[in-house]
Amino acid sequence: KILFGEGALPKEVDGYLFPPGFEPDSAKVAYDQIEINEDDILIATYPKTGTTWVVGIVHQILYGDNPTDLEKYSTLQFFFHYLEFGAVCKYDVWKKLSFPRQVFATHLPEPLVNMKKFKANGAKLIYVIRNPKDQAVSWRHFVKNFAYTKSEFWKPFFPEDEKEFYDVYLAGNQHAFAKKRKGYLECIKEWYKHKNDENVLFLVYEEMKKNPHIEIKKIADFIGKSLTDEQLNNVVEKTSFASMKKESEKTAPDNNEGAQFFRKGQIGDWKNHLTVAQSELIDRKVKEILGDTDIEFIYE
Ligand code: A3P
């Protein structure tokens, strides 16, 4: 396994610590190298907040079931959009792409993304948020499959015991994607300053779950595609949790390095996993970190 293997150590770039697999340095190179134009779309998220879903929706809207060039070239099925994964083999392909729009994804913190370049070239930004309780639960189930979390170095950061796991995670001790001891909520805050900029669409996972037709139409309008009712229904159906999961099962699981991108796809699973104290800790952190924004997470 290339990305999440056992010997993997964290990488630090500009004070941000990244888990194994991330190539934040190469992503920076990519920003300098790739051509960006006004048709391109960047989907920025924190892990486990609905990235794969939104990438799937944008793809369905733009290309239907036709694979893009990048998909044809890519060996790592789910990583081809990410600027910071599997980069080495990817940039050369990116340069040759013939399809009209590029759909990029990134989990990088905002200060590491060259938003100036994206904006100057008129590219669009979609940012997705999800309530931090379900995000935490989704994260635990996701990383369980990775060999690195069982290695000597990482084991203390990824306890087997469920309660301990969340305690460590919520204390910001898993070095995930943000400056030391900071995490998801701080990353949202960094991106949220773009909320009212031109060419920016903020989406909420739970709203997409509750009103897929409305939210998917919003995405289509944003990327300049008008859909008939029939087309819209088709995108909703093709990007439902059940359809996407089924579709993903057709491809060899090896393509994804053991990463499972489709687990439950529900709102409120946190109630089955977090203790009351952990849930209250999240409530306090949300107030402390995002209290001065208009973000109100949906927990059920
Ligand atoms: P759960 O682990 O709670 O099920 P990401 O793509 O950012 O890694 O996020 C993964 C989460 O989104 C997982 O959450 C996954 O099941 C959920 N998901 C993926 N596709 C989905 C879809 N079509 N509808 C709803 N949720 C989806």
TrEMBL record:
Q: What is its EC number?
A: 2.8.2.-
The UniProt keywords, alphabetically, are: Transferase
Tell whether Transferase is among the UniProt keywords: yes
Q: Where is the Sulfotransferase domain?
A: 39-293
Single GO MF annotation: sulfotransferase activity
InterPro entries found in the cross-reference section: P-loop_NTPase, Sulfotransferase_dom
Per the similarity annotation, which family is this? Belongs to the sulfotransferase 1 family.
Query: Whose protein is this, by species?
Result: Phallusia mammillata
Extract the Gene3D superfamilies matched here. Answer: P-loop containing nucleotide triphosphate hydrolases (3.40.50.300)
Query: Membrane-spanning residues where?
Result: none
What's its top-level EC category? Answer: transferase
What is this protein's name? Answer: Sulfotransferase
